[in-house]
Amino acid sequence: MSHQTGIRANEELKKFFGKCRDGKIRVMKIAIENEQLSLLSYKEKKGNWESDYEKFVPGLVEAAQPTFILFRLDTKSDTTAYDWLLISWSPDDSPVRQKMLYASTKATLKQEFGSGQISEELHATVEDDVTLRGLTKSRVCATSPAPLSMREEEMASLSNTLADVGIGIDSRTQTLGGVAFPVEPKAVAAIQNLKMKRINYVRLKIDLSNEEILLDHVGQVSVGGLPSLVPSQTARYHLFNFKHTHEEDVLESIVFIYSMPGDCCSVKEKMLYSSCKAPLLETITSSIGLQIEKRLEIDNGSELTEDYLQDELHPKKCLHRPKFDKPKGPPNRGARRITKAQQTPKNRDTALFPETKSSLES
Question: Pairing between strand 25-33 and 8-9?
Fold first, then answer.
């Protein structure tokens, strides 16, 4: 990864690395400036590592600005050198390019400082992660047993909750099909009302901060009013009972619509809505029992016309089939030759021996 950025420590930081191992330095803050790793600030030891951690570390992080923090612990390794903790601060609201740049430079920092002296690493995205409580929680998670599988978590959730509420999959469950957020009870009740045909439209949204799927709008909507319910600045999930006629039959079809505007949404919002779609559909169809006839993805509400829904549900058959062309024969090689057929002799012997015929005649 270090070869991808080419960012190295500047001379000032290299000299500081050489003299910070005497036990006097407690913590240092390092950032990327002018395409170099630079020392921004440092603090000397005041007390034990826990009190110094609470006193120094939380104040070193800034919103929307990634950084590296090297913190010296009180323990020593087998080489009698102090153990160090490397904190990679990469907040969620920082630019994606900055996150990638710091992630690609971490290996270089470890190499310049001495990776053998870094006994622990902490990746932090929110301020609670860099507190002493957050560090303790991270250590516990690192030593805890492996998490339950998706199936095990679903069974545990279903057995410990009521049937009408315990439909959502456990929060932050990550699967091959995506990330499943819990569905709030109000949204579950609205989908059940849609199933019982009390309403014909439900709109759902993702609470990005609490990682939960919430009810956003519910009601009785006509096909003509459907486009106005699609937000132009944010993504949404829609469930619509489309009443229509096809081949003189009156039909009702549940359509799931995933609306995602082009460049208006953040990268995080796009990723979450895309990742949560499959688990949400699984919850709606398997747990709630609402059968979905068609799944659609649109950019804006103007696409949702009655003709569009009809074509998606009942694609038109191609009645015109092109005729099969007879293959061409071999190329013309000129006029055909006429050959004279050979006559077969009536008497084979006279044909072979004409002198026999003359002697017989005489």
Answer: unpaired
